[in-house]
Amino acid sequence: MTEIDGLRRTLRVALLGAGSVGSQVARLLLEHQSDLAERSGARLELAGILVRDIDAPRDAELPRELLTTDAEALIQSADIVIELMGGIEPARGYVLQALRSGADVVTGNKALLATHGAEIFEAADQVGASVSYEAAVAAAIPIIRPLRDSLAGDRIKRIFGIVNGSTNYILDSMDRQGLSAQEAQRIATELGYLEADPSLDLEGYDAAQKAAILASLAFHTQVSLDDVHRQGIESVTADMIADARRAGYVIKLLAVCERLSEDGGDAVSVRVYPALIDREHPMASVHGGNNAVFVEAEAAGPLMFYGAGAGGVQTASAVLGDVVSAARRHIAGGVGVGESARQSLPMAPFGHITTRYQITIEVADVTGVLATVAGILSDHGVSIATALQTIERGEESSTARIVIGTHRATEQALSDTVARLADSDAVTRVLSVLRVEGE
Amino acid sequence: MTEIDGLRRTLRVALLGAGSVGSQVARLLLEHQSDLAERSGARLELAGILVRDIDAPRDAELPRELLTTDAEALIQSADIVIELMGGIEPARGYVLQALRSGADVVTGNKALLATHGAEIFEAADQVGASVSYEAAVAAAIPIIRPLRDSLAGDRIKRIFGIVNGSTNYILDSMDRQGLSAQEAQRIATELGYLEADPSLDLEGYDAAQKAAILASLAFHTQVSLDDVHRQGIESVTADMIADARRAGYVIKLLAVCERLSEDGGDAVSVRVYPALIDREHPMASVHGGNNAVFVEAEAAGPLMFYGAGAGGVQTASAVLGDVVSAARRHIAGGVGVGESARQSLPMAPFGHITTRYQITIEVADVTGVLATVAGILSDHGVSIATALQTIERGEESSTARIVIGTHRATEQALSDTVARLADSDAVTRVLSVLRVEGE
């Protein structure tokens, strides 16, 4: 499989998938061959590119002789297998086959890792092969390696980040250009930020997959997609964004991974939801399709990683970084310690997290309403940080809006409070409920 | 030197230096022993701590039996040597001794790497040992590893960053609290941001050392402190900061590492100077003692890394990350490809860089002055982007101030222009000259 070529070994690289990322990876592997050889210590030979249909039209020019539909043969002959097909099957089968044959695997497949990560890392451990996946989260932004290596001597308390560029593009253009959700989505689709089926992005599945991957790594605990509390941006309206702006906030779809102290030890909470961020927070100035990840570690303090959250060539940069590392390891002959789920912390019930709520309700403009509302919060042990009442005079009756910012309380207390408010005769409607993060 | 302890090997770790970082490293090594063992695959035994005087008073409680003044014996017995003494000698001698005895070295010593990096990396290569130095630049912020590993398949075009927390603290408090340079320095000293001899920070030496380290790594070219064009913040006044603010800028001490296309191939420019940054740029919101590094890579696009720029425990986090990696490598039995200076790009003359200048001059308020000034710029092929003239009426005569923002031009043309302006009869004084970066 490997041969000595003068002083240098050759490693055979199989590429599975030739989409927007795959074709860029192929191009860079071919164009930067000598640079990559110097950096990895081996000649990296692109052995073949697995495609579904050799004759299908492609954006990028790929050497036709490298295209193949024979997955088995390609994988069997490779030292390093790059999986960029996406989806669960056949990607899962190919990755397992590659690992069983002793190849190192580089993948950008977040869906696969968020659902079958445990199986894949175990297969890698059994044969002493490596699985790298920098490209699976936040495209070119180095976040996996810093979590795994740079902070390996530290203890991570919390990660929160903007990890989905499409929804950030939508929320950002609603905030900065005053667009409606529909308009913003239409433009995002035109610009290629949203897929034909946008639900993966809009409903927060994509962000939840990435959150599961980050949490697994940060807390040495296998977190899968099902463990993630997920809420998308479908319910975020232009009004909510305008209200947030007036209150000094911006709405971002956040992925939050947190270590909680529970009775009986630490537990993990992983969640995705639209949240309010103070406009002064560095996260508030993450515009367009960019991503940013905050990491709070015990010793290192807060760190932020920022950059493009998508894009073929950007993601290809992350893939190639992993390929070079895999090649170095392949030559050094050892992979060190594999992916660890040794802490196996339990998942904290969602009700146990503590946040601040910003609750906007419509009430009848009658005497004593604010007192009633304040009483409901107090009944649940939730104290009020700010309350703002505005009144709209109508012909016959008036309605008032109250925006309540709570102090920090458990999700349980806060959601019970909102349920009681919704049931109360004093409250006409609950207009919006958002959590405040990043404080 | 190593022994099997059940299933696990033990690696002996020697710590040289017990200052603010060293004592935190010792504490974390002892407190997090089982975590570190899980993550590195080996028990990390703190074999000893080299100090100058065993009986000297210390901030942190360190086990007295670990303290030693016998450097030779301690280093000789170690698998991993952590050097946190600072300064050139005896640190250099100890590091070389450690490498010759086959130990992996982890160091936070930027002065040593910026002046003797080539010698140290060569010594490491000869024996197949590793030298890690995440802690040498920007404390806990993972920047060395992303440059070396994550971006190993990419090509870096430019790095620019705030890499000195002390000067950032001073400039930030001048900007945000309107302090004078003296006041800001006094407070920075009180808060421990500045050393008793503050010249290393204020004159840009510290930033220049870090710039040399980053450029060496990014461009695979040995860049030493002497190659860095260096200007500190001594000349930055409250007036300059107020002027910058009015023009929508903030002044930051920047380290810039750039790949330039010269006739005959690429060259490298590395420089440290106070520069104007647009207030909308993410770098502008790096406050207090924080650091931030922007990396522009060909494929990955712009990336930013942000966090605390100093602090004992923060820096200790970076050291421990390196220790865990060194331990993993030690066990895997290979270090892969060493530090590379294979590109050996030439250093570009400072005059070859292109930037924009913001020139503030005082002129006599007489007819035709602006035309004279504009003529001088035009003579040097420098075109004007913005010009703002303000007039101060005095009792007898009036003076005018002109602020000129140039378009991008070579440093040579720009500095020649300023020299001609200074010589011109039309110009009373050149008040300030600042470059604009981050565009």
Automatic annotation (TrEMBL), chains A, B:
Pathway involvement of the protein, from the record = Amino-acid biosynthesis; L-threonine biosynthesis; L-threonine from L-aspartate: step 3/5; Amino-acid biosynthesis; L-methionine biosynthesis via de novo pathway; L-homoserine from L-aspartate: step 3/3
Residue ranges occupied by any ACT domain in the UniProt entry: 358-435
Q: List the keywords (alphabetical).
A: Amino-acid biosynthesis, Methionine biosynthesis, NADP, Oxidoreductase, Sodium, Threonine biosynthesis
InterPro entries, alphabetically?
A: ACT-like_dom_sf, ACT_dom, Asp/hSer_DH_NAD-bd, HDH, HDH_cat, NAD(P)-bd_dom_sf
Give the superkingdom in one word: Bacteria
The coenzyme or cofactor needed here is: a metal cation
Report residues binding L-homoserine.
Answer: 195
Tell me which EC number(s) this protein carries: 1.1.1.3
**Binding residues for NADPH:** 110
Protein family membership: Belongs to the homoserine dehydrogenase family.
Relate the protein's function as given in its record. Answer: Catalyzes the conversion of L-aspartate-beta-semialdehyde (L-Asa) to L-homoserine (L-Hse), the third step in the biosynthesis of threonine and methionine from aspartate.
Protein name in the entry: Homoserine dehydrogenase
